[in-house]
Amino acid sequence: MGTYYAAFNYDKKEVLEPDPKGTRWGCKFGSLISGEHWFPIGLVYLMGTEWQGDRVVIAGDSSYGSEYMPAQDEWYDWIEEKGGWKNVSVYWYEEMQKAFAETDGHPCYQPDMSEEKTMTEKKTRPVIICTSYRGVFFGYASDTSGDSIHLTGAKMAIYWGTTRGVHELAHTGPTSKSRISAPADIEVRGITAVMEVTPEAEATWKTA
To answer: Which of 99, 138, 143, 203 is 20 to 30 A from 168 (CA-CA)?
Structure first.
């Protein structure tokens, strides 16, 4: 019993609900203000990023309904009737579960302090690594200062296909003539150069 809440973004026509996986473990007012549930944490994140500046209504399922609030037991029907709405709850639930550990089976969040989730690891950047064996690798690295560099999502330029040398791969990315390998997490050694990758080049590498 009680009132459960969801957030409705009227500009993007997106809804964030507290029960993305059908567990019926909703978010009441106490959880909404205490931060013990994934939903308010996800909402705060969205309001500062993807939903910043948008019109967002937090509605309860026991409301009488209005132009901007669904009536009791009409949340999902109301969204369908409006048309064009997208439920982004599962996506953000899973994204936050990657960053925070579950507690007692509920989607409550506590920082994961394991070595695999350190802040250093999260602060990766796109780079291109050249080696003494003439290897050219694109990937994401958190530390490029050592004799070996760990790259995640690494791709090898099997054939450059450029007209302005290897630097073109870092400036604008692979061309239609480039031959690029499948991605893998690798340890690169024999390093001769580390090149910063532009946003334009990174986007091209992602689809290469």
So the answer is: 143
